[in-house]
Amino acid sequence: MTALFRRYATPFVTGLFLVSLISGIALFFHVGPGAFHGIHEWLSMVLILPFLMHLWRNWRGFANYFRHVPMALALGVSIAASLAFFVPTGRQAARGGPPQFAFAERVLDNGTVEDVAPLVGLTADEAKARLAAAGFEIPAPDATLSAIAEASNKSSADLLRLLQASSG
C-alpha cells in the first residue's frame, strides 16, 4: 500500500489539480461547456483522496511548514479571504450561471399558480389539480410557488418539474 501511495499520490494530485484549475477558470469566466460544473465539483471531491495520500507520504516535510510564519500567514489570509464571502452585502447573493436562469428562477419562485400555469400550457385549475394529486398543499389562493413547495415539504424544483412535465 505504501508503494502505491509513493508511486501515485503526487501524479494524481497534479492531474486532478490541473483539471480543477482549468474547470474553475472556465466556470469563473462563464466559458466552455456546461460539463465543467460537474467536472469541477466531482473531480475536486475525488482530489481529496490523492491529496491525503500525498500528505501522508510527505508528512514530515509538511509538518515543518507549521513551525514558520509563512504557513500561519497563508492559512490566516486564506481563511480571511473565505470569510469575506459570508459578509452580507445588502442584496441577496446571485447564483452562478446565466442571468436568464436566475431571472426565470426568481419569476417562477415568486409567481402564483395563476401566473405560471399558462407558461407551461395549463390553466390555473389544471395546474392546481395536478399539484394536489401529487401531494402539494396550496396554503392560500395567492400563494407563491415557493410557498406552496415549502408548505408541502418539497422543493420548488419538484413543483416546477411536475408542472413542466405535466404540460403537453
Can you describe this structure?
This protein starts with a helix and ends with a helix. The protein folds into two domains: 2-84, no CATH class; 99-166, no CATH class. The model has no long low-confidence stretch (mean pLDDT 87). It is elongated, with a radius of gyration of 24 Å. Helix 1 crosses helix 3 (48-57) and helix 9 (145-151) packs across helix 10 (156-166). It has helices at 2-28, 35-46, 48-57, 59-65, 69-83, 99-110, 113-116, 124-133, 145-151, 156-166. The chain is built from ten helices and no strands. The longest helix has 27 residues, at 2-28. It is mainly α and 168 residues long.
Q: Based on Cα principal axes, name the global outline.
A: elongated
**Low-confidence residue ranges:** none
N- to C-terminal distance = 57 Å
Overall pLDDT confidence = 87
SSE class: mainly alpha
**What is the domain total for the residues?**
2
Helicity level: 55-70%
Query: What is the strand content?
Result: under 5%
Task: Give a short overview.
This is DUF4405 domain-containing protein. Helix 9 crosses helix 10.
Topology of this structure?
Elements: H1 2-28, H2 35-46, H3 48-57, H4 59-65, H5 69-83, H6 99-110, H7 113-116, H8 124-133, H9 145-151, H10 156-166
What labels would you give this structure?
168 residues, mainly alpha, 2 domains
